[in-house]
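With this grant's support, we have paired protein sequences with backbone structure tokens. One protein thus recorded is set out beneath this paragraph:

_____
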Amino acid sequence: MNRLNIITLGTKDIVKSHNFFKKLGFDTSVSGPETEPDIIFFKNEGTKIALYPIEELAKDINEHHPPTIAKGFQGITLAYNAKSQDEVNEVLKKAKLAGATIQKEAQKTDWGGYGGYFTDLDGYYWEVAYGEMWEFDESNMLIIHDE
């Protein structure tokens, strides 16, 4: 297992979440009617993202004993790697206008970069960061060099 294909985000209101991510600029495809979609896939470069009703996601894991749906930080963040400090500022501004809560304003980081965090409508934490030393491949995926 040396790849990650889809990250599915359980959502409390799939229509509101879909609108939020469209405002951020994500291109999506909807399975089912627009007013009550079954699942939504993002047509982004690299790893794919999907939105799915959180109760249904819990039941998909275990129909008879679904996991408890917790609130707050779950120890996972999603990251958008920007190509400039200005892009970090633009993405955070766009997220706030779409209804996100800014958790950490953009600032210099202890690792030499620049970034901040927001939470989306379902409380998922998104890091938006830039590193001067970063390189991207032809699919706009961050290149991680072995040390």
Remarks:
- The radius of gyration is 16 Å.
- The helical segments are 14-23, 54-61, 85-98.
- Residues 16 and 83 are 28 Å apart (CA to CA).
- The longest strand covers residues 101-108.
